[in-house]
Amino acid sequence: MKHEDPAAGIEVPRVMAVLQSCGVELTTEQATLLARHAELVLEANQHINLTRITAPEDVMRLHLADSLMFVNLVEPLRGPILDVGSGAGYPGIPLAIMGYDVQLCESVKKKAAFLAGSVQSLNLPVQVHAVRAEELAATAPGQYNTVVFRAVSSLASLVELASPLLRDGARAIALKAAVTEDERRAGARAGSLCGMKPVDERRYTLPSGENRTVLVYERTGSASTRLPRRPGLAQNHPLG
Fold it and tell me: What pLDDT shows up at residue 65?
């Protein structure tokens, strides 16, 4: 029986065209690595659940564009950067390919193993932490200048998870499809307990037409509650 190649259609010229159309400048070498990572994702996705987005054109327009379009809106993006809940590696691996100092945090062991294999295959200097963000914060507090989340949990949970990982003056960046006013207020309430404050919010539109929001929080001081809390509490019982 003939099996269709799931990665067929991830072509380097098309990767360059899609990203350049949304203001991302990149070299042929970077486009080649982005295409190779996308191929690895689609190949592995046949065995482990990495993404529901499997059409090559959608991977380029949704995963790749969404991983890099926000950068111009939040510059300077200072490292070390921690991508929490990295999953298939978006946005951490594209950011590393573009030259940023990135580490990945993924608690699902199969996904973390995929990420470790991918950065090795792509020869990227990226460390993969196969633990929850709370566990990493307990062993490596205040180590990062940027913590980024893409489509991971609520704002109240994210500011709590980010705070103990960040240095003073460092930033948490949340990439989300939509944000309600209730979620925004809950994020601000949690931030006031975690030594974090909202400092910026921008909107942009992907090449596929979907709207996205990038929200930026800054660590302004120590939390008034002890962080990190027990793993899982930030998501299940957020402070906000």
Answer: 94
